[in-house]
Amino acid sequence: DVKVTQSSRYLVKRTGEKVFLECVQDMDHENMFWYRQDPGLGLRLIYFSYDVKMKEKGDIPEGYSVSREKKERFSLILESASTNQTSMYLCATVTPPGQGADTQYFGPGTRLTVL
Amino acid sequence: GQNIDQPTEMTATEGAIVQINCTYQTSGFNGLFWYQQHAGEAPTFLSYNVLDGLEEKGRFSSFLSRSKGYSYLLLKELQMKDSASYLCAVSSNTGGFKTIFGAGTRLFVKA
Per residue in B3-45, pLDDT tens? Predict the structure, then answer.
């Protein structure tokens, strides 16, 4: 089974703090994603990465950056946290091309509260 | 553009059958997924359709009509543990690999 882990389940930060959310997967998948999930809005893609040191903006990248130094690790960074970034953050990896449906496997999520 | 619509909430009775509909608009259609998400937990994969028709997996079935941009998830013999949100998601290969998620349908199963 694919295992995707995230560094924290719950996190509370202050406005203006720099926040790091870590995600690690153990299946050697190339594609990794960061989403945020808010009530009534569903999952929205922040950033994704096709490979080490490669990153692409998703639908809502403003206020976020990412880092992919190793294949198994994809980090989401909030340079200066704001209250509107209070949300559930989900990391995901996906079945590699040619290995069946591009099913997404999600980490347990990090519920971030910015005060 | 890309858009996915599904009902916000549904209520059904234990032991009954419920159908959750999803309509979508996308270019470069590459498959439709249903995910289940219990409160406070991550989404988990339920089903995948890329061709028209019905895919059955135990108590759950998923249907796709690509010409109509329509899918449904059918849950039979409902159990209390089926109370969850059900997310419809469409994979698109336009502009790179991307999966668009609907806002989810919250299903309440009552005794």
Answer: 899 999 999 999 999 999 999 998 888 899 999 999 988 899 9
Give strand pairing partners of B24.
B4
Positive or negative, the CA dihedral A108, A114, B4, B6 is positive
Query: Under an 8 A CB cutoff, do B97 and A104 touch?
Result: no
Residue A51, chain B, CB below 8 Å: the answer is no
Q: How far is CA B53 from CA A63, B49, B62, in A?
A: 42, 8, 8
Question: Would you call B51 an interface residue with chain A, using a CB distance cutoff of 8 Å?
Answer: no
Pairwise CB contact (< 8 Å): B42 & A90: yes
Q: What is the pLDDT of residues B92-109, one digit of tens each?
A: 877 666 788 999 999 999
Alpha carbons B90 and B95: distance in angstroms, whole number: 14
Query: What does chain A come to in residues?
Result: 115
